[in-house]
Structure formats: C-alpha cells, structure tokens
Write a structure and sequence with these properties.
The complex is a heterodimer of chains A (84) and B (139). Chain A has 84 residues and is mostly helical. Chain A contains 4 helices and no strands. In chain A, helix 1 packs across helix 2. Chain A starts with a helix and ends in a 6-residue tail after the last helix. Chain B is an alpha+beta fold. Chain B is 25% helix and 36% strand. Chain B has 4 helices and 5 strands; from the N terminus they run βααααββββ. Chain B starts with 13 loop residues before the first strand and ends with a strand. Classes of the chains: A mainly alpha (84), B alpha+beta (139). Chains A and B meet through helix 2 and helix 3 of A and strand 3 of B.
Chain lengths: 84, 139
C-alpha cells in the first residue's frame, strides 16, 4: 500500500529534523522509537511542521502530537489542499 | 531597534548590528575559551597558511549573534534553543562586519522564533550564516 502524501512528507520532515535516514522513521513512530525525538526535538519538529504545512499548531495539539499517526491525522484535518 | 514584545514581532522583522573585532577581543576570547590556536593569535602563522593575517575565532564571530538575540531580537528573556552555523569566509581583526538577524517564522503556541542569522563583511560577502531557534520567555 503506497504511503499517503502527508505521511511521506512528515517522515521526510522528521528525518531532516532528527537527522536520521527517512527509512529509520517507522509507521508507528513516537519519541520512544525515534532517536532525536526528545523535548527539544519535539519543538523543532513542531516548528518544521508549521513552516512546511503553513498550519499554526495550537498548544493542545503540540502536547498531543507525539506520534506519526497523530500528526498525520491532525494535518489531514487542518492542512489546506495545497499543502497536502 | 529596541526589543519588541513577542506579540509585536512578526515574520520579516530584522535587526542589524555592526562591529569591527579588535585584537584585544580576540586575545580575550582565546584566554576565555582556551582556544590558543596560532591561527587566531599569530599573524605570521595566518599568512603562512594562505590567510591575510590571524583569523578571528568563528565562535567569537557567532557570539555576536548571541548578543543580538539576547538584547534585541527577541531580546532580554530569550532562550537560545539551537543554532546551525556555516563559516563561509574568514573574519580579520578590524574588518567591519554586520550581524543580520531576521525572523523567518514565529510560532505563537511555542513562543518560539526561527531566525535567519547572517554575518556579512564590508564587501557584502557572507562570512557566516545559519539558523537559530529561540524561545521568548517574557511577553
């Protein structure tokens, strides 16, 4: 099954943010299984997502977006058609 | 420019600060950091290795970014989270340089700025560039 464009893009952003190969970002990625996804890494990831998708992330979302699945779901609901 | 409040800051806001590094600053930085590499302290050594003279420590040049961040953009109460740095050209003593810090992204919820950090010399050449992420602790 091909990856959704959002998931693929988020994986690329995660790889660049955490400085790991994209292949090392699993579909069930969380701070527990991705090197570099610590508290500072999370801030950097949220900033990168805001910049890449053009979506301001509310404070509650930042606390909740601690898995690839949650991030993909949030962006599917909030990102514009253009940024998808 | 005096420091704006975080609420007032917006994408594109830019602060510039000009300076010419003195020999005394380089010598002081060598003592402070312990980096007594002759490339930074000995004009003859610098010339022997293809430079115009002794070269200002890159860390001293990048420290001027800290000055701008801590005093002007975003100013007092800022927390420097990260910085990427590329040293593109050597800086020499007495050469005028200009530190340019520009807001490229502002995250309201994270109270964090992404800043483009550039230092240029009098010929307009980039001597250092990079990106900083800075959280504003005060309003």
């Amino acid at each position: 099954v091909p990856e959704s464009p959002i998931r693929e893009k988020v994986k690329r952003i995660m790889a660049a943010t955490f400085r790991v190969p994209a292949a090392r970002i699993p579909d069930d990625a969380t701070p527990e299984n991705v090197a570099g996804w610590d508290s500072l890494g999370h801030i950097e990831l949220m900033l990168a997502l805001e910049m890449e998708f053009g979506v301001p992330l509310p404070t509650e979302a930042i606390i909740d977006l601690v898995s690839l699945e949650a991030i993909e779901g949030f962006l599917r609901d909030h990102a514009t058609a253009v940024t998808r | 420019m005096s420091a704006k409040s975080f609420a007032e800051l917006k994408q594109g806001d830019t602060v510039r600060w000009r300076h010419a590094v003195t020999a005394e600053e380089v010598d002081s930085f060598a003592r402070l950091s312990g980096d007594v590499n002759p490339l930074h302290l000995d004009d003859a050594f610098g010339r022997q290795h293809g430079f115009r003279g002794r070269v200002v420590h890159g860390a001293l040049v990048s420290a001027f970014i800290s000055r701008v961040i801590g005093t002007e953009l975003p100013g007092p109460g800022s927390l420097w989270l990260s910085q990427t740095t590329r040293f593109a050209q050597p800086v020499y003593i007495a050469d005028p340089i200009e530190v340019v810090v520009r807001v490229v992204h502002k995250s309201e919820s994270l109270r964090t700025l992404v800043l483009e950090t550039t230092i240029v010399n009098a010929r307009g050449e980039t001597v250092m560039d990079g990106e900083a992420k800075v959280r504003a602790l005060r309003d």
